[in-house]
Structures are given as structure tokens and as C-alpha cells.
Design goal:
By secondary structure, this protein is α/β, with parallel strands linked by helices. Helices cover 24% and strands 26% of the residues. The chain is globular and about 50 Å long.
């Protein structure tokens, strides 16, 4: 059950989304050190994704699931942004980390005239200089 989040009175927002989870750099060796043999002990991790206005700290959307069973972080951010726009919130900027370097999210931010402020991956393509615009 998802609670209804009241965002009335919010006209302009600078949205940011992030999630909890394990960092995947050297994840194999970290998991072996922390949890012993990864094949013998498969753990399911709880993921919580929150979208909020970075200026007012007002929560726009919350999503939770078990790792691997729910929507991805960019899909959830797109859903939260779309729901905020449907409630007459004008998103000026969208902040995210490297997980948000996907064309669908760039398309969405450009369509609502928001400025994407995302960390670009090291292996990002330089064929499209403004994301998927």
C-alpha cells in the first residue's frame, strides 16, 4: 500500500531522486568478505527510492521493493516526475547520479522543459551532446 503524498502548494520544484542499495564496484570481493561465499548465501536487499524537492525537502514520491523485483531507479524517477507534473508542479531541474544516465529520462526532462543535472557515466556516448534531445 502506497500512502498518498500531499504536494499541494508546491508550484516549482527542483527534483532529485536516489535509492538505497549496495555499491557495485568490486561487489564480488566485498560480498565474499562481508557475507562469505555469495553462492551459498544469496541475500535479498530492500531498495527504497525517494524523489524530493531538493530546496524544500518535501517528498514527492516513495517506492520500495526487493532488489531485482521492482522498477529500476530511472523508471521510478520518471514515474514520480510524471505524477508531480500531473499535479501541476513545474519541475525546473532534475538531479540524479550515474544511474539516471538513460535516454528515456533525458527525453522526459526535455519534454517538460526541465534541466537534467545528472552525473554522466565514464563510457557515455558523445554522439548526442544533450542526452537524447
Amino acid at each position: 500500500m502506497m500512502p498518498d503524498i500531499d504536494i499541494s502548494g508546491l508550484r516549482y520544484a527542483e527534483l532529485g531522486t536516489d535509492d538505497t542499495g549496495l555499491k557495485t564496484n568490486n561487489a564480488g570481493s566485498y560480498r565474499i568478505m562481508k557475507y562469505s561465499d555469495p553462492d551459498a548465501r544469496q541475500r535479498e536487499h530492500f531498495i527504497l527510492i525517494i524523489t524530493a524537492d531538493v530546496r524544500t525537502k518535501k517528498i514527492i514520491g516513495i517506492e520500495s521493493h526487493i532488489e531485482g523485483n521492482g522498477m529500476s531507479e530511472p523508471e521510478t524517477a520518471g514515474k514520480h516526475i510524471t505524477e508531480a507534473v500531473m499535479k501541476d508542479v513545474t519541475a525546473r531541474e532534475f538531479y540524479g547520479d550515474g544511474a539516471f544516465d538513460v535516454n528515456d529520462l533525458f527525453d522526459l526532462t526535455h519534454s517538460i522543459h526541465a534541466k537534467p543535472v545528472n552525473k554522466i557515466r565514464k563510457n557515455a556516448s558523445s554522439n548526442r551532446y544533450n542526452g537524447s534531445k
